[in-house]
Amino acid sequence: MSATNPVTVNEVSPRVLSRELVLLLCVLALVLMLALTALLSRLYHRKIHTLADAMFAQGEADEQAKNFNAALTDYRNALVYNPGNTRFQFHLAKALAAAGRDEEARSYLLNLLSESPGSGEVNLELARVAAHINSMADAMRYYQGAIYGEWDRDPIGMRWQARRELCEFLLNRGAVKQAAPEVIALAENTPADDPLRLKISGQLLLRTQQWSRAQELYQTLLAANRNDEQSLAGAAQATFELGQYVTAMEYFDRLTRERREQPDLLNLYDMTGRVLAVDPFLSGLPADVRSQRAANALSMAQTRAEACAPQTGRPLDKTPPQTDLQRLYQQDKSLQQDWTQPNLQRFPDRLEAAMAYVFNVENAAALACGEPQGDDRALWLLGRSRSVVNR
């Protein structure tokens, strides 16, 4: 019987080798498939993002062209391919607001705000939506959020813009007192080397009747460009309201005739001329001109009182007098001789008392019958400016 040959240690079964090779090939195939899948996935997502970006770019173009309905479609299509893109969501919200779909815009913006509560950009858009629907409390809150929020680009400029919009929102709704401190803050945060923004601040100061601040701002602008018509007009208006009529006329005279005759300045310019024409206190006037102006003022005041009395139903000659207008009118009767034009010229020290009487009559008539017009208004304004000067 022949003996079998034993298998040596180094000998391997062909079956074992084939099994290991198959396993190795399977692993390599799996790795290759995974790599291919990852590559295809990247290519797919790149293609998807490319499509989303293209649709978003088309949306921006449509939005700039004011074609908001088309922009909405473009932005929504972009979000189908890239639903988590907050930039796409923000622009969709802006387009919705521009299309007048405020509630939808607000919904998107509130979601964005919940993710980035300090976003100045989102707060500003929410403020605009609130302003559009006349929600005063929300508009105030979101404008403040924009003013003190975070901005990715030009934070100083964007905060200035947000505050400007807040000022105009309040003023357009007649909230002058609420707007005043915001306008002051706006002016104080306007760069001294930015004439365009300074002029915007100046106009807002005028609208909030902050005459001294407006005058100072326009004087700064005129120091850099003394012939700038917008600054001259603003300075003239502020100076007029401060009762500085000589200086106001100097500003008016530096304007072109066409600018002076525009509606926003024509009445102020005319009234400035009237005030200067009735003012007996102007420096350089001869004594006879001063006395004649005072006498004319006394005559106008008497006429004004006589015209006002029938409107009140209280005759001026009632005894004893009960109203300020009655007392002043009867006082005039006793002083007429002292305040004639010759006596005022001969005794110039009487002129101050005569004009004080005129101003008192004009004030009393204004209280009883409303603010005067024409030359009576000029006297009334002159009296107000004198009371400020002499205070």
Q: Helix and strand string, N-terminal first?
A: HHHHHHHHHHHHHHHHHHH
Number of domains: 2
Q: Helix proportion of residues, in percent? A: over 70%
Can you tell me the residue ranges where pLDDT is under 50 for at least 5 consecutive residues? Answer: none
CATH topology of the largest domain: Serine Threonine Protein Phosphatase 5, Tetratricopeptide repeat
Would you identify the CATH H-level superfamily of the largest domain?
A: Tetratricopeptide repeat domain
> How many strands in all?
0
At the first level of CATH, the class of the largest domain is Mainly Alpha
Keywords:
mainly alpha, 19 helices
How would you characterize this protein structure?
- With about 400 residues, the protein is mainly α.
- The protein has two domains: about 45-225, Tetratricopeptide repeat domain (Serine Threonine Protein Phosphatase 5, Tetratricopeptide repeat), CATH 1.25.40; about 285-390, no CATH class.
- It is built from 19 helices and no strands.
- It has helices at about 15-65, 70-80, 85-100, 100-115, 120-130, 135-145, 155-170, 175-190, 195-205, 210-225, 230-240, 245-255, 255-260, 265-280, 285-310, 325-335, 340-345, 350-370, 375-390.
- Helix 1 packs antiparallel against helix 2 (about 70-80).
- The radius of gyration is 40 Å and the shape is elongated.
- It starts with 13 loop residues before the first helix and ends with a helix.
